[in-house]
Protein backbone atom coordinates (compact mmCIF):
# COMPACT_ATOMS: atom_id res chain seq x y z
CA UNK A 1 0.00 0.00 0.00
CA UNK A 2 1.08 3.59 -0.55
CA UNK A 3 1.05 5.46 2.73
CA UNK A 4 0.96 9.21 3.28
CA UNK A 5 3.59 9.53 6.02
CA UNK A 6 6.55 9.94 3.70
CA UNK A 7 5.05 13.08 2.17
CA UNK A 8 5.33 15.20 5.30
CA UNK A 9 8.62 14.58 7.04
CA UNK A 10 11.95 16.18 6.14
CA UNK A 11 14.72 15.93 8.75
CA UNK A 12 12.26 16.69 11.51
CA UNK A 13 10.95 19.91 9.96
CA UNK A 14 7.39 20.49 8.80
CA UNK A 15 7.31 23.10 6.07
CA UNK A 16 4.14 24.47 4.49
CA UNK A 17 4.40 25.96 1.03
CA UNK A 18 2.15 27.42 -1.63
CA UNK A 19 3.05 25.83 -4.95
CA UNK A 20 0.55 27.79 -7.02
CA UNK A 21 1.42 31.45 -6.49
CA UNK A 22 1.70 32.30 -10.16
CA UNK A 23 -1.53 33.36 -11.91
CA UNK A 24 -3.21 30.58 -13.86
CA UNK A 25 -2.57 30.69 -17.57
CA UNK A 26 0.03 33.48 -17.44
CA UNK A 27 3.19 31.61 -18.30
CA UNK A 28 3.42 30.01 -14.85
CA UNK A 29 5.53 26.93 -14.24
CA UNK A 30 3.26 23.91 -14.83
CA UNK A 31 1.90 22.34 -11.69
CA UNK A 32 2.67 18.89 -13.12
CA UNK A 33 4.97 17.99 -15.98
CA UNK A 34 5.94 14.65 -17.51
CA UNK A 35 8.50 14.71 -20.30
CA UNK A 36 9.11 11.43 -22.17
CA UNK A 37 8.83 9.47 -18.94
CA UNK A 38 9.46 5.73 -18.90
CA UNK A 39 9.38 3.28 -16.00
CA UNK A 40 10.17 -0.44 -15.84
CA UNK A 41 9.50 -2.94 -13.06
CA UNK A 42 11.27 -6.29 -13.24
CA UNK A 43 11.75 -6.03 -16.97
CA UNK A 44 8.13 -5.00 -17.58
CA UNK A 45 7.70 -1.55 -19.10
CA UNK A 46 4.79 0.08 -17.24
CA UNK A 47 5.24 3.57 -18.71
CA UNK A 48 6.76 4.49 -22.06
CA UNK A 49 7.50 8.02 -23.32
CA UNK A 50 4.65 9.62 -21.37
CA UNK A 51 4.40 13.40 -21.71
CA UNK A 52 1.86 15.87 -20.34
CA UNK A 53 1.73 19.34 -18.81
CA UNK A 54 -0.96 20.50 -16.39
CA UNK A 55 -1.21 24.23 -15.61
CA UNK A 56 -1.54 25.44 -12.05
CA UNK A 57 -5.09 25.67 -10.79
CA UNK A 58 -6.50 23.14 -13.24
CA UNK A 59 -8.13 19.75 -12.71
CA UNK A 60 -6.97 16.80 -14.76
CA UNK A 61 -8.21 13.21 -14.90
CA UNK A 62 -6.00 10.17 -15.46
CA UNK A 63 -8.11 7.62 -17.30
CA UNK A 64 -7.33 4.10 -18.38
CA UNK A 65 -8.03 0.43 -17.76
CA UNK A 66 -6.53 -1.40 -14.79
CA UNK A 67 -2.80 -1.81 -15.25
CA UNK A 68 -2.53 1.18 -17.59
CA UNK A 69 0.14 2.87 -15.42
CA UNK A 70 -1.96 5.44 -13.55
CA UNK A 71 -0.84 4.46 -10.04
CA UNK A 72 2.78 4.47 -11.18
CA UNK A 73 2.27 8.04 -12.40
CA UNK A 74 1.03 8.98 -8.91
CA UNK A 75 4.08 7.32 -7.34
CA UNK A 76 6.35 9.29 -9.66
CA UNK A 77 4.63 12.59 -8.80
CA UNK A 78 4.96 11.81 -5.09
CA UNK A 79 8.63 10.90 -5.37
CA UNK A 80 8.03 7.33 -4.18
CA UNK A 81 9.71 5.93 -7.29
CA UNK A 82 12.04 7.44 -9.89
CA UNK A 83 11.67 7.29 -13.68
CA UNK A 84 14.07 5.20 -15.73
CA UNK A 85 13.97 7.85 -18.42
CA UNK A 86 12.58 11.32 -18.90
CA UNK A 87 11.68 13.87 -16.25
CA UNK A 88 8.83 14.52 -13.81
CA UNK A 89 8.32 17.83 -12.01
CA UNK A 90 5.77 19.10 -9.52
CA UNK A 91 5.67 22.90 -9.30
CA UNK A 92 8.90 22.90 -11.28
CA UNK A 93 10.76 20.66 -8.82
CA UNK A 94 11.83 17.04 -9.34
CA UNK A 95 10.06 14.96 -6.66
CA UNK A 96 13.26 13.10 -5.73
CA UNK A 97 15.27 16.31 -5.30
CA UNK A 98 16.30 17.44 -1.80
CA UNK A 99 14.51 20.75 -2.37
CA UNK A 100 11.20 18.92 -2.91
CA UNK A 101 10.49 19.17 0.85
CA UNK A 102 9.38 22.75 0.19
CA UNK A 103 6.72 21.44 -2.18
CA UNK A 104 5.55 18.18 -0.65
CA UNK A 105 4.11 19.78 2.49
CA UNK A 106 1.70 21.53 0.15
CA UNK A 107 0.52 18.23 -1.36
CA UNK A 108 -2.56 16.25 -0.33
CA UNK A 109 -2.91 12.62 -1.37
CA UNK A 110 -5.77 10.13 -1.20
CA UNK A 111 -4.71 6.62 -2.30
CA UNK A 112 -7.16 4.18 -3.84
CA UNK A 113 -7.02 1.82 -0.87
CA UNK A 114 -6.99 3.82 2.35
CA UNK A 115 -5.31 2.04 5.28
CA UNK A 116 -5.58 3.39 8.83
CA UNK A 117 -4.88 1.98 12.30
CA UNK A 118 -8.19 0.32 13.13
CA UNK A 119 -7.70 0.75 16.86
CA UNK A 120 -7.55 4.53 16.74
CA UNK A 121 -10.61 6.73 16.57
CA UNK A 122 -11.25 8.78 13.47
CA UNK A 123 -10.56 11.95 15.44
CA UNK A 124 -7.27 10.61 16.85
CA UNK A 125 -6.22 9.32 13.44
CA UNK A 126 -6.82 12.65 11.73
CA UNK A 127 -5.18 14.49 14.64
CA UNK A 128 -2.08 12.35 14.16
CA UNK A 129 -1.80 13.36 10.51
CA UNK A 130 -2.66 16.93 11.46
CA UNK A 131 0.28 17.15 13.84
CA UNK A 132 2.58 15.97 11.07
CA UNK A 133 1.42 18.92 8.94
CA UNK A 134 1.28 21.43 11.77
CA UNK A 135 -2.53 21.56 11.76
CA UNK A 136 -4.39 22.16 15.02
CA UNK A 137 -6.97 19.71 16.33
CA UNK A 138 -9.84 22.17 15.92
CA UNK A 139 -9.04 22.38 12.20
CA UNK A 140 -9.07 18.56 12.07
CA UNK A 141 -12.48 18.58 13.74
CA UNK A 142 -13.71 21.04 11.14
CA UNK A 143 -12.60 18.64 8.40
CA UNK A 144 -14.37 15.74 10.09
CA UNK A 145 -17.53 17.81 10.01
CA UNK A 146 -16.91 18.75 6.40
CA UNK A 147 -16.77 15.08 5.34
CA UNK A 148 -19.72 14.08 7.53
CA UNK A 149 -17.85 12.08 10.20
CA UNK A 150 -18.47 14.18 13.31
CA UNK A 151 -20.96 11.68 14.77
CA UNK A 152 -18.47 8.82 14.27
CA UNK A 153 -15.34 10.79 15.20
CA UNK A 154 -14.72 8.97 18.50
CA UNK A 155 -15.44 5.48 17.18
CA UNK A 156 -12.56 3.12 16.29
CA UNK A 157 -11.74 3.22 12.60
CA UNK A 158 -12.19 -0.56 12.42
CA UNK A 159 -15.94 0.03 12.88
CA UNK A 160 -16.07 2.34 9.85
CA UNK A 161 -17.57 1.25 6.55
CA UNK A 162 -15.45 1.47 3.40
CA UNK A 163 -17.18 4.72 2.48
CA UNK A 164 -16.48 6.20 5.91
CA UNK A 165 -12.80 5.25 5.69
CA UNK A 166 -12.73 6.85 2.26
CA UNK A 167 -14.17 10.06 3.71
CA UNK A 168 -11.61 9.99 6.52
CA UNK A 169 -8.92 9.63 3.85
CA UNK A 170 -10.36 12.63 2.06
CA UNK A 171 -10.19 14.68 5.26
CA UNK A 172 -6.55 13.60 5.64
CA UNK A 173 -5.79 14.73 2.08
CA UNK A 174 -7.31 18.17 2.75
CA UNK A 175 -5.22 18.87 5.85
CA UNK A 176 -3.40 22.19 5.62
CA UNK A 177 -5.26 23.40 2.50
CA UNK A 178 -2.81 21.82 0.03
CA UNK A 179 -2.04 23.50 -3.25
CA UNK A 180 -1.80 20.21 -5.15
CA UNK A 181 -4.21 17.32 -4.58
CA UNK A 182 -3.76 13.77 -5.86
CA UNK A 183 -6.86 11.55 -5.79
CA UNK A 184 -6.55 7.90 -6.86
CA UNK A 185 -10.10 6.55 -7.43
CA UNK A 186 -11.51 8.84 -4.70
CA UNK A 187 -15.18 7.90 -5.07
CA UNK A 188 -14.64 4.15 -4.65
CA UNK A 189 -17.01 2.93 -1.94
CA UNK A 190 -18.97 6.17 -1.74
CA UNK A 191 -22.74 6.16 -2.04
CA UNK A 192 -24.41 8.59 -4.50
CA UNK A 193 -24.94 11.27 -1.84
CA UNK A 194 -21.33 11.07 -0.68
CA UNK A 195 -20.16 11.26 -4.30
CA UNK A 196 -22.10 14.48 -4.78
CA UNK A 197 -20.56 15.85 -1.58
CA UNK A 198 -17.11 14.88 -2.81
CA UNK A 199 -17.55 16.82 -6.04
CA UNK A 200 -18.85 19.81 -4.10
CA UNK A 201 -15.64 19.70 -2.06
CA UNK A 202 -13.70 19.41 -5.30
CA UNK A 203 -15.28 22.64 -6.55
CA UNK A 204 -14.33 24.38 -3.31
CA UNK A 205 -10.71 23.30 -3.74
CA UNK A 206 -10.74 24.50 -7.34
CA UNK A 207 -12.16 27.86 -6.29
CA UNK A 208 -9.20 28.50 -3.99
CA UNK A 209 -6.75 27.68 -6.81
CA UNK A 210 -5.70 24.13 -5.99
CA UNK A 211 -4.42 21.88 -8.77
CA UNK A 212 -6.17 18.50 -8.77
CA UNK A 213 -5.03 15.27 -10.41
CA UNK A 214 -7.54 12.47 -10.17
CA UNK A 215 -7.86 8.95 -11.55
CA UNK A 216 -11.31 7.46 -11.99
CA UNK A 217 -13.25 4.78 -13.84
CA UNK A 218 -16.47 6.80 -13.40
CA UNK A 219 -16.21 8.62 -16.73
CA UNK A 220 -19.70 10.10 -16.70
CA UNK A 221 -18.98 11.64 -13.30
CA UNK A 222 -15.65 13.27 -14.12
CA UNK A 223 -16.59 14.62 -17.55
CA UNK A 224 -18.08 17.84 -16.15
CA UNK A 225 -15.55 18.16 -13.33
CA UNK A 226 -12.18 18.15 -15.11
CA UNK A 227 -10.36 20.63 -17.35
CA UNK A 228 -8.13 18.07 -19.08
CA UNK A 229 -8.12 14.33 -19.62
CA UNK A 230 -5.18 11.97 -20.03
CA UNK A 231 -6.08 8.60 -21.52
CA UNK A 232 -3.46 5.93 -20.85
CA UNK A 233 -3.26 2.33 -21.99
CA UNK A 234 -0.41 -0.17 -21.65
CA UNK A 235 1.80 2.56 -20.24
CA UNK A 236 1.46 4.84 -23.27
CA UNK A 237 -0.36 8.14 -23.52
CA UNK A 238 -3.15 7.63 -26.05
CA UNK A 239 -4.59 11.14 -25.85
CA UNK A 240 -4.31 14.23 -23.66
CA UNK A 241 -6.22 17.50 -23.78
CA UNK A 242 -9.45 19.28 -23.03
CA UNK A 243 -12.75 17.62 -23.92
CA UNK A 244 -13.06 19.76 -27.04
CA UNK A 245 -9.49 18.92 -28.08
CA UNK A 246 -10.19 15.22 -27.65
CA UNK A 247 -13.39 15.53 -29.69
CA UNK A 248 -11.48 17.23 -32.49
CA UNK A 249 -8.68 14.66 -32.36
CA UNK A 250 -11.07 11.70 -32.39
CA UNK A 251 -13.28 13.04 -35.18
CA UNK A 252 -16.34 11.27 -33.77
CA UNK A 253 -19.73 12.18 -35.14
CA UNK A 254 -22.65 13.92 -33.44
CA UNK A 255 -25.75 11.74 -33.57
CA UNK A 256 -29.15 13.31 -34.24
CA UNK A 257 -32.41 11.41 -33.81
CA UNK A 258 -35.54 12.85 -35.38
CA UNK A 259 -39.13 11.95 -34.66
CA UNK A 260 -41.14 12.91 -37.74
CA UNK A 261 -44.78 13.05 -38.68
CA UNK A 262 -46.35 9.91 -40.11
CA UNK A 263 -45.10 9.22 -43.63
CA UNK A 264 -42.48 12.04 -43.63
CA UNK A 265 -39.36 10.00 -42.88
CA UNK A 266 -38.32 9.38 -46.48
CA UNK A 267 -38.89 13.01 -47.44
CA UNK A 268 -36.81 14.24 -44.51
CA UNK A 269 -34.02 11.75 -45.25
CA UNK A 270 -33.95 12.67 -48.93
CA UNK A 271 -33.68 16.37 -48.01
CA UNK A 272 -30.14 15.84 -46.74
CA UNK A 273 -28.98 13.73 -49.65
CA UNK A 274 -25.40 12.59 -49.08
CA UNK A 275 -24.46 15.44 -46.75
CA UNK A 276 -25.02 13.39 -43.60
CA UNK A 277 -24.76 9.72 -42.70
CA UNK A 278 -28.15 8.05 -42.32
CA UNK A 279 -28.16 5.09 -39.93
CA UNK A 280 -31.86 4.39 -39.48
CA UNK A 281 -35.10 5.36 -41.21
CA UNK A 282 -38.64 4.12 -40.58
CA UNK A 283 -42.11 5.65 -40.73
CA UNK A 284 -41.61 7.90 -37.70
CA UNK A 285 -37.85 8.09 -37.13
CA UNK A 286 -34.74 9.29 -38.89
CA UNK A 287 -31.32 8.76 -37.31
CA UNK A 288 -28.44 10.68 -38.84
CA UNK A 289 -24.94 11.73 -37.84
CA UNK A 290 -22.42 14.37 -38.83
CA UNK A 291 -19.07 15.73 -37.72
CA UNK A 292 -19.29 18.26 -34.93
CA UNK A 293 -18.31 21.12 -37.23
CA UNK A 294 -21.37 20.50 -39.41
CA UNK A 295 -23.84 20.22 -36.53
CA UNK A 296 -25.15 23.78 -36.73
CA UNK A 297 -25.55 23.54 -40.51
CA UNK A 298 -27.73 20.47 -40.00
CA UNK A 299 -29.72 22.16 -37.23
CA UNK A 300 -30.46 25.15 -39.48
CA UNK A 301 -31.60 22.77 -42.19
CA UNK A 302 -33.90 21.06 -39.71
CA UNK A 303 -35.53 24.40 -38.91
CA UNK A 304 -36.78 24.56 -42.50
CA UNK A 305 -38.52 21.19 -42.01
CA UNK A 306 -40.42 22.08 -38.87
CA UNK A 307 -43.75 20.90 -40.28
CA UNK A 308 -42.42 17.35 -40.68
CA UNK A 309 -40.33 17.18 -37.48
CA UNK A 310 -41.97 16.58 -34.12
CA UNK A 311 -38.90 16.12 -31.90
CA UNK A 312 -35.09 16.33 -32.10
CA UNK A 313 -32.57 14.57 -29.86
CA UNK A 314 -28.91 15.58 -30.27
CA UNK A 315 -26.11 13.53 -28.72
CA UNK A 316 -22.59 14.86 -29.07
CA UNK A 317 -19.65 12.53 -28.35
CA UNK A 318 -19.32 11.97 -24.59
CA UNK A 319 -16.17 11.23 -22.60
CA UNK A 320 -17.14 7.53 -22.56
CA UNK A 321 -17.24 7.55 -26.38
CA UNK A 322 -13.87 9.27 -26.59
CA UNK A 323 -12.32 6.92 -24.06
CA UNK A 324 -13.53 3.88 -25.98
CA UNK A 325 -12.25 5.36 -29.26
CA UNK A 326 -8.71 6.02 -28.04
CA UNK A 327 -8.46 2.76 -26.11
CA UNK A 328 -9.79 0.63 -28.94
CA UNK A 329 -8.12 2.45 -31.81
CA UNK A 330 -4.83 2.95 -30.01
CA UNK A 331 -4.60 6.51 -31.34
CA UNK A 332 -1.57 8.38 -30.10
CA UNK A 333 -1.75 11.92 -28.82
In short:
By secondary structure, the chain is an alpha/beta fold. Helices cover 31% and strands 26% of the residues. The chain has helices at 70-78, 101-104, 122-132, 137-146, 162-173, 192-207, 219-222, 243-250, 265-272, 295-303, 319-329, and strands spanning 32-41, 44-54, 59-63, 85-90, 107-110, 180-184, 211-215, 228-233, 236-241, 253-260, 277-281, 285-291, 309-315.
SSE layout:
Blueprint: E1 32-41, E2 44-54, E3 59-63, H1 70-78, E4 85-90, H2 101-104, E5 107-110, H3 122-132, H4 137-146, H5 162-173, E6 180-184, H6 192-207, E7 211-215, H7 219-222, E8 228-233, E9 236-241, H8 243-250, E10 253-260, H9 265-272, E11 277-281, E12 285-291, H10 295-303, E13 309-315, H11 319-329
Parallel strand pairs: 3-7, 3-8, 5-6, 6-7
Antiparallel strand pairs: 1-2, 1-4, 8-9, 10-12, 10-13, 11-12
Helix pairs in contact: 3-4, 8-11
